[in-house]
# Entry
Amino acid sequence: MFNKKSQKVHQKVSNNRWGRSGITTIQLNKAVVRALKRIKEYPRETYNEVILNLIKNAEETKELDIFIQKGEQFVATYRALIEETKELGTFIQKGEQFVVTYRALIEETKELGTFIQKAQREKMKELWEEGDYTAWENV
# Structure
């Protein structure tokens, strides 16, 4: 009728009855006693066993709450990491766009330099052919 754990508890309580050490008398509201009766697992289960089971369940629930809390912290950290990764991805993408724009600008500058060099060559040929060197004095 008793499981092994409840037998040990029952024996301990039985051995400590009638003035022996380890037993206290507590006053409970009648509504509390009725609630304890309703949650008994079997009719001869003592209130001591009922209360010990409540304590055990409360401790297990507390451990579960801690586990859930740590899980929620992990999820929050993971989501923050995803957001940072998105921001980093956007930053890298903008950086790559900048590099492409910069390279295009460098190419345009090279083309402009080539254009200016060709124009200068033409002007130099003109000036050398004409023999007019005064324009070089003002350069």
Notes: The first helix runs from residue 4 to 15. Residues 4-134 form one domain. The CA atoms of residues 85 and 113 lie 41 Å apart. The helical segments are 4-15, 30-38, 47-130, 134-137.
